[in-house]
Design goal:
Blueprint (H helix, E strand, L loop, with lengths): L13 H19 L4 H17 L1 H12 L4 H27 L2 E3 L9 E8 L2 E5 L7 H12 L3 E5 L5 H14 L5 E3 L4 H8 L5 E5 L2 H12 L5 E4 L5 E4 L5 H13 L11 E5 L3 H15 L15 H16 L3 E5 L9 E5 L6 H4 L6 E7 L2 H9 L6 E5 L3 H10 L4 E4 L20 E2 L4 H7 L1 E8 L15 H12 L2
Parallel strand pairs: 3-4, 3-6, 4-5, 6-7, 8-9, 8-13, 9-12, 11-12, 13-14
Antiparallel strand pairs: 1-2, 2-16, 7-15, 10-11
Bound molecules: nicotinamide-adenine-dinucleotide (NAD).
Nicotinamide-adenine-dinucleotide binds next to helix 7 and helix 8.
Length: 476
């Protein structure tokens, strides 16, 4: 059976179809026992091999879905990142699976304590359109490394990539091992209502709330990888050329449709003009022509394009100055700098998710920190400075899902670092060992010793028990 097409309707309501699929996976999990090291490594190897073999098809599918997605961006941010997460997990999983030693409280010695990592069972993964391969497969790597089976619901806004994903998975995995379920909001809602052993959702904060509410009915634990407004703070002592190069690169990669893209920039008043002039020049140098430039990605669909245009218009009609690097064309939107923005404008209230960059001047670093702390906790924070004390001040006084010093975006590709938001930008984390742990139960086990003093506490409580209790209470 091709699970890829299960959502196309086979005469029964989608909820029942999905429940049947989940039950089959749970039954297989019970029947086959926990996946051993060899099976986990084999599954991770299959993910890597299918991505490697289908590179060109992946590039073509995402390009078609976006109506123009840079080949290099897809190779870097979807293919390389997925391969690197599978490779990292394949190399690390033997160590991650090992029981972990915990210190034993003196009162219980000589018993020993261990944590035994175990697969949870069947994981659910819901992914968005902006990196349609990576956002589906990177969580899957964590789920498989931890020995689970999984159902994946990719975005309906990238139908060709979702179809390719379904085909690749169906070719490389048994239907009760990994399944791809395609469909839109209705299928997503039915999917989120399934009693998974863990549900990882990546997407907008608003839908994240609905997913968590649906999961609550089953007490399904969730990891929510959400969005938000990630600030970049330029310190007074920053290397301006390097900072601008990094921010423009990070903002224009995938045309700003990156959850960890710098959403807006905080710049010292004294550096504002220089920053803006350099940013426009650098953008024009990186992408001399926009409309037909294969390096520059399109806004992925009409709704997103309209949303961004409306956001720019809203800022403009409320008195902001708009400066663009080039003119764009089709669904390609140039770097659009917004000056004199205020916090009533959508561009300052909502996640931008496109190449629109409010540049907000500040007087002193405390004001910049207060600006960040006045909003929701961001998914990422970037600080650019040469002064260690300034960097430490920003890092020490703000909270965010992650942070990068003197660059942006690249922490998301480092498998050794956990990835996840805090507050409105999400909860829980994955990547590497942290992904393995998210999809595992770390079962605490106490191994009692043959020689132990528990007999002293057998009722009826006599002098020995009372003496021991007295001794225990005396401990400092
Ligand atoms: P979205 O929330 O609209 O859609 C994401 C997925 O949720 C899709 O598969 C969709 O079908 C499904 N869905 C929609 N309604 C649902 C419902 N009621 N119940 C269950 N599932 C439902 O998000 P999007 O527009 O596709 O993605 C953009 C957002 O994702 C941005 O906010 C971005 O910051 C965020 N994002 C976060 C990360 C991260 O790692 N934190 C990564 C990429 C994107």
């Amino acid at each position: 059976m091709s699970i890829a097409h299960i959502a196309d309707g086979e005469g029964q309501p989608i909820g029942e179809t999905l429940s049947g699929l989940l039950r089959a996976m749970q039954a297989a999990h019970q029947r086959d026992g926990f996946a051993d090291l060899a099976l986990r490594r084999d599954r991770l190897g299959r993910i890597a091999a299918m991505v490697r073999q289908n590179q060109d098809a992946i590039v073509a599918a995402i390009d078609a879905d976006f109506g123009g997605r840079s080949r290099e961006e897809t190779l870097l941010a979807e293919v390389f990142t997925t391969l690197s997460s599978a490779r990292h997990a394949k190399g690390g999983v033997a160590k991650w699976m090992r029981p972990r030693r915990r210190a034993m409280d003196l009162a219980f010695k000589p018993a020993r304590a261990r944590l035994l990592p175990q697969p949870l069972g069947v994981a659910g993964i819901i992914s968005p359109w902006n990196y349609p391969l990576l956002m589906a497969l990177s969580p899957l790597v964590g789920a498989l490394a931890a020995g689970n089976r999984a159902m994946v619901k990719p975005s309906e806004f990238t139908p060709r990539t979702s179809e390719l994903l379904a085909e690749m998975i169906a070719e490389n995995f048994a239907a009760d091992e990994v399944a791809v379920v395609q469909g839109g909001i209705e299928v997503g809602a039915a999917f989120a209502a399934l009693p998974f052993d863990h549900l990882l959702y990546t997407g907008s904060t608003n839908v994240g709330r609905k997913v968590m509410a649906a999961a609550a009915a089953n007490l399904t634990p969730v990891t929510l990888e959400l969005g938000g407004k990630s600030p970049a703070i330029i310190g007074a002592d920053a290397n301006m050329d390097a900072a601008v190069a990094s921010i423009v690169r990070g903002k224009l990669f995938n045309a700003g449709q990156t959850c960890v893209a710098p959403d807006y920039v905080l710049v010292p008043h004294s550096h504002l003009d220089a920053f803006v002039a350099k940013a426009l020049a650098v953008a024009a140098k990186y992408y001399p022509d926009l409309a037909d430039n294969p390096d520059y990605s399109s806004i992925a669909n009409q709704a997103q394009f309209d949303r961004l245009q409306a956001m720019i218009r809203d800022a403009e009609t409320q008195g902001a100055r708009i400066l663009t690097a080039g003119t764009g064309g089709g669904h390609k939107l140039p770097l659009t700098i917004v000056l004199d923005s205020t916090d009533v404008m959508a561009v300052r209230r909502e996640e931008i998710f496109g190449p629109v960059l409010p540049v907000v001047p500040y007087n002193d670093l405390d004001a910049a920190i207060a600006h960040v702390n006045g909003g929701d906790r961001p998914l990422a924070l970037y600080v650019y400075d040469r002064d260690r004390a300034n960097i430490d001040r920003v890092l020490g006084a703000t909270i965010s899902g992650g942070a990068v010093v003197n660059d942006c975006l690249i922490h998301a590709g480092v498998e050794a670092l956990p990835f996840g938001g805090v507050g409105a930008s999400g909860m829980g984390q994955y990547h590497g060992q942290d992904g393995f742990e998210t999809f595992s139960k770390l079962k605490p086990v106490l191994y009692q010793s043959r020689l132990n003093g528990m007999w002293i506490l057998n009722p009826p409580y006599g002098a020995k028990a009372k003496g021991l209790i007295k001794l225990l209470l005396k401990r400092p």
